[in-house]
Amino acid sequence: MLRFSAFLLLSLVACLVSAIKFDLEALPSSTAFAHRKCLSQHVGDNTMVIVTVKVGEGYNQRVDLEIFDDSESINKYATRRDVGEQGARLAFSTHADASIFVCFTNTLSDGFNPGPNYRRTIDVDYDIGAEALDYSKIAKAEKLEPLEVELRKLEKVVQEIWDEMEYLKRREAKMRDTNESTNERVQWFSIITLLTLVSLGTWQVMYLRRFFKRKRLID
């Protein structure tokens, strides 16, 4: 029963693995980079990530790959030129709590005109955190039983869920503080605007009253 429960929970958290498949049109070198295709996934700091890329067949085309994040330092994790049909498997650990971008460029060879026939199918798989660990090596190194391995996976997944909840909690608190600060500023701005309008209205009434008195239009 415990083994079945562990398997069921692992099935429920399988959404941590992302798989995307799309066609990438080949363009001349002068415009290919400007029309590159990028996929993004937010990943926490110091998290293991494995990106597996499979490229479909295509002639007179070169698919280049670049992986980086959108942190202040813009960390670059991998660059691959001419990813062929053999594909690529890239593993790295993140250096910042940021979004990871996997960008593809399909460059058409010189002398060929772009067309619907010049495109390649890109298949991308993300393995993040617990899904990126090689539990077979861990099991051999620590001599773990299959059930212990499943429990180790569950422990890692639960820890990641907890970290994600803590991250969302911090973001919610930050957004709440920002909203409260904005509301307070709007409130003071409204009060100052109201006082300014009342002051201007009073000044205008007094000025017009003095003006009409000088012209002897009112007593």
TrEMBL record:
Main location: membrane
Membrane-topology descriptor: Single-pass type I membrane protein
Keyword Phosphoprotein: no
Domain GOLD: 36-130
InterPro entries the record matches: Emp24-like, GOLD_dom
Membrane-traversing stretches: 188-208
Location(s), subcellular: Membrane
GO CC terms in record: membrane
The family this protein is said to belong to: Belongs to the EMP24/GP25L family.
The protein's name in its UniProt record: GOLD domain-containing protein
